[in-house]
Write a sequence for this structure.
């Protein structure tokens, strides 16, 4: 990880009153982190009972009020709503005059950069996109996990130092993402983190079906080592029957999955093909073994819902 230049104290934001619009899993955790840095949470909005509970746990004594009142009370407002709701929320706040000149508006969407905040910018707000590359639970452990967490940062050049300073105050590491690269950046994170959960959950189910009493205990060390190796070495960390070109073992896998977990076949085949392609490209899979392997993977699509390739 590259070393981030620590901002000069004069570039650090002054102590701010902080508001949260959308008390899901992310907003209260970020506000609590800012509170530890000396800022003052003053209001949050939340509709569901779960969101109110999260706010009460992470931000005790902070009142739950409508979004417009959050905007009135706070110098820095965290817009932590689902991606699809963000553009409409920003437009609505700007059209109703809720945005104040000089107010810092921070959204935490990975998909969007700063341009989604343009309606608020025209109303005089200071737009910042600060996306924590972290999965959140909605509990106090999230505040601890922010220590060392990378944030995808996008903001106008004149606000870059302020944005990076806020991330550092939350314990994070700012990583500058160009506006045009935000969708690709977010796709990369989703590809890794979201699909990892699906893969692990499928592995757990299959191990239970195979009679393993404690599949989590079995997978923990294995997957931890695999993740560490992959982060350190990339494709050089590839192991297993696909990377070795062991077509017979892969065929047996597909047969067993068809019998016991047919819903997992398409995913297994798609990932096996991707693994084979990468192993070939990096010289790990011998070309003379690849033909039989790819034949098994092609045959494996028979009887499935189309070719996942």
């Amino acid at each position: 990880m590259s070393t981030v230049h620590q901002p000069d104290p004069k570039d650090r934001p002054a102590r701010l009153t902080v508001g949260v619009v959308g008390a899901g899993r992310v907003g209260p955790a970020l506000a609590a982190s800012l509170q530890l840095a000396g800022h003052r949470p003053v209001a949050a909005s939340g509709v569901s009972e779960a969101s109110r509970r999260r706010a009460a746990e992470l931000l005790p004594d902070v009142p739950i009020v409508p979004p417009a009142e959050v905007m009135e009370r706070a110098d820095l407002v965290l817009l932590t709503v689902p991606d699809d709701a963000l553009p409409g929320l920003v437009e609505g706040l700007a059209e109703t005059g809720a945005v104040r000149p000089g107010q810092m508006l921070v959204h935490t969407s990975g998909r969007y950069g700063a341009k989604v905040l343009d309606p608020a910018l025209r109303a005089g707000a200071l737009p910042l996109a600060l996306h924590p590359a972290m999965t959140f639970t909605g509990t106090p452990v999230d505040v601890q996990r922010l220590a060392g967490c990378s944030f995808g940062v996008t903001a106008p050049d004149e606000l870059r130092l302020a944005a990076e300073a806020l991330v550092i105050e939350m314990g994070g590491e700012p990583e500058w993402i160009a506006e045009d690269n935000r969708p690709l950046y977010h796709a990369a994170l989703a590809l890794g983190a979201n699909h990892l959960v699906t893969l692990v959950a499928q592995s757990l189910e299959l191990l239970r079906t195979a009679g393993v009493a404690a599949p989590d205990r079995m997978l923990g060390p294995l997957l931890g080592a695999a993740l560490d190796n992959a982060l350190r070495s990339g494709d050089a960390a590839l192991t297993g029957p696909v990377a070795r070109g062991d077509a017979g073992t892969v065929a047996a896998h597909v047969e067993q999955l068809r019998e016991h977990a047919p819903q997992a076949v398409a995913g297994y085949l798609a990932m096996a093909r991707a693994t084979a392609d990468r192993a070939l490209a990096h010289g790990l899979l011998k070309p003379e073994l690849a033909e039989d392997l790819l034949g098994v993977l092609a045959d494996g699509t028979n009887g499935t819902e189309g070719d996942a390739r």
Q: What stands out?
A: The longest strand covers residues 126-132. Residues 190 and 196 are 9 Å apart (CA to CA).
